[in-house]
Amino acid sequence: MEKKRKLVGLGIVLVCVFALTAAVWAAFPQPQGFVNDFANVLDRRSQSELQVLAEQLRKDQGIELAVVTVATTDPLDPKEYTTALFNEWGIGGPEDSGLLMLLAVAERAIEVEPGYGLEGVLPDGLIGAVIDQEGMPHFTKGDYGAGLTAMAKAYAAILAGEEFAIAGERKVDTGWLFSFFIFVLIVLLLRRNRFYPPRGGGVGGGGSGRRTVFVPGPTFGGPRMPTGRGSGGFGGFGGGRSGGGGAGRRF
What we know:
Shape: elongated
Distance between the termini: 54 Å
Number of helices: 6
Strand order of the largest sheet: 1-2-3-4-5
CATH topology of the domain at 30-166: Diaminopimelate Epimerase, Chain A, domain 1
CATH class of the domain at 30-166: Alpha Beta
Largest sheet: 5 strands, mixed
CATH architecture of the domain at 30-166: Roll
Low-confidence stretches: 13-26, 200-231
Mean pLDDT: 79
Radius of gyration: 27 Å
């Protein structure tokens, strides 16, 4: 009899857990576009700028950026909610090249989470640095639109191959060293041609007398990103996944 009661009690607990889980997932709003201001805290200008940025990212690099504001993430904490929402919406294409920026008003929290395909380009530390330097100065003043826009611009620049200067880190300029190396190499080549003139080139010579000199140089350009749908507008997300990485802050 006692064993039967325990089994019944366990069954009730499991039913409650499953019911709560189903309620949480059912409570997730449906995406309305790249920018989803469910908390009604973004001004029109910020929404427009974020929308243009997101459309350009998808068109140029196949990256799907979702910006979300919610009144609260209760009963989940902001990080759990962000990961669950990311995977529920499927942000990013088959290459998992998605990025979710979520702001929770009641919790005063900002969470940024990349898809699996962007973790190498946007490691957790870099994501956090962008939040600290670009977002937090605005969030602490209640200017959510400016903070999210500044962060989105920084992430877009990084994804395009630009360098983000992290405050407090000393950047060593090696440009002069490379220029000096090229200068020395050219001088050596000129001296070599002076003392050892090329063969041929005279009347009846066997060649043109010209030499091709290859001077190595740096290769420019950002990391190659997976390509995706090139058309403008929203049209839904592409089924990307996230493993729960990224960074978050309270303000």
